[in-house]
Design goal:
Rossmann fold, Cytochrome-c3 Hydrogenase, Chain A, domain 2, 2 domains, 33% helix, 8% strand, globular
Amino acid sequence: MRQTVDFTGNGRDVERMLVHVLWLTSGLSCDGESVSLTAATSPSLEELLRGAIPGQPRIALYNPLLAYDVGDDYMKAWHAAARGELDPFVLVVEGSVANEEINGEGHWSGFGVDPEGQPITASTWIDRLAPRAAVVMALGTCAAYGGVPAMRNNPTGAMGLRDHLGHHFVSRHGNPLINLPGCPVQPDAITETLQRIALEIAGVSPPTELDDQGRPLWLFEQTAHETCDRAGLAEHGRFAKSLADHGTCLAKVGCSGPVAKCNVPARGWVNGVGGCPNVGGICIACTMPGFPDRFLPFMDSSPYIRLTTGGGRFLYGPVLRRMRNRTIRKLERTGTGA
């Protein structure tokens, strides 16, 4: 199953290149990212798989939720990759990684079986494939940081992929682990990142720039608050007392937008529509390390946010409103012909 490609790094050679994406969903996961992937539009999953984007390598996706093949037929690519016969490939891990050293006489997760008919654990697949992958990506907050399965008192020892592989892990191509958090990840963020990875493997795109948490910088450079359409209301000191208050910022009723790195308010969910704050919901910081424990209870604001909202409401907010209203009245009196 080894793929050989006559590749020179540009033009039609890139379009003939095939990048395999092995998508492991057998961690502790709800498959939310797999479902989210189907809603992507820019680019869409179909465009990636059909090679419809000029100058872009084609992508072969091996995802058990979306695959036609089942059983041994589906597992062929995975075993071939473990033997070094599938190249290049990207390993995508969805779901947190259980600690199989504390599983007693059983196992926490399994994916396929070995020659003796025993389940192969997700952590075993990660250990086999990560050293051979061109790029490794933790997809979703569970895979990136542990997420809900890693909450306090969980029995599985669940952890993020970086904790399992080590914080200094680099792939065979020298790429650090990419963390793409979200609960689930915004659809276009998934396909956009896969597109960039494919172009990087093809040698026609520079390495993905990451922040100190391993997140793609172009997706997680700003907080949710910075791009929220209610941010201007906070500047005026107009804060909601309940979720039913319209035309107000939701920071005082538990929104973590001022401290959460997330671009959903800017790009929406599907075709620019939707996304938590855009439809009246609060940001619960699902893209952040320590979620959910560090941000519970969700409807309570943190001391930092209470401090900033208090300052906005009683100090600079009234001053800004007064100055802005004076300017508006002056401009309205002057008229457009002045």
